[in-house]
């Protein structure tokens, strides 16, 4: 998959002059981004992991072991492992959120951990509901430990997320918990919409964006506001940061949708044509079906026929049949439209930062993370 970098497109909003600081050009910022994003993600992972481990240690056996396997800390036999724990975008955003409010990054750490716990609660349940057998290059929890454990551990992680915030016992913690529970409810709404769309012949682009805004945008929006709330930011500041996170989430999901069809399995850790195998009405599919032309009509015919097949029959398709559907989506313009939508949402996210009074280096780091989301390959 190739996505043109949105850096140049966003440079008009990302290079605004701040008092006492020079204007940063797109080319100069690219150098800073490449050097800083990895460090930002690693900082989030390094600070959050010990607190995540302590939270998981509270779980009754065998849920503690199952959760440790999911996070990549142990292998299926219980031996210590250095598995891929994910990109850690949400913890990185929560720590930056606290800094945007003028607080230390550590102030946002309970929020970072709470959001990461909710995110992984959703992954455990999604993998089971979608029948995904691979995540982060190894077997998913339900495949190794069974569906019941996947459900129970997911529920436990959600409970832990709220527990960690409420234990702070402050007014800010109460405000942060309200934002997290609202985001979680929207996330669940989005998953319900996603499942229902799999059984419909047609879904509009607007419906798909609403679903993805709930499923992905809501939690990223929470991640990038929760640290600020814990740091004492007012609602206006938190809401502006939420707007950045919401549109960043839509950009993130648009890229995910592209990777779900055309991503390299060695990079994504999932099967080829992953979303097509699950009959997902993702953005490229919906945009292609909404287009006019022979490729769109032929795709609609195939998907109408596919909807009448059982999942077992559908899973018997060979690679060529999935490749043919992917080719029709691309010919109908679904791939290009989704790539452009990722860039549009990226630009909107960056513009939301202009309304927040924050240190210039924090803003640059938020922009760098947004750029990373749109040009990633996994």
TrEMBL record:
Swiss-Prot/TrEMBL GO biological process terms: isoprenoid biosynthetic process
UniProtKB keywords: Magnesium, Metal-binding, Transferase
Entry annotated with the keyword tRNA-binding: no
Start and end residues of each stretch annotated as Disordered: 1-25
Family: Belongs to the FPP/GGPP synthase family.
Identification of the protein by name: Polyprenyl synthetase family protein
SUPFAM superfamilies xrefs: Terpenoid synthases
Domain of life: Bacteria
Keyword Magnesium part of the UniProt annotation: yes
CDD domains noted in UniProt: Trans_IPPS_HT (cd00685)
Provenance organism: Streptomyces daliensis
Molecular function GO labels: metal ion binding; prenyltransferase activity
Pfam families per the UniProt record, alphabetical: polyprenyl_synt
Record InterPro entries: Isoprenoid_synthase_dom_sf (IPR008949), Polyprenyl_synt (IPR000092), Polyprenyl_synt_CS (IPR033749)
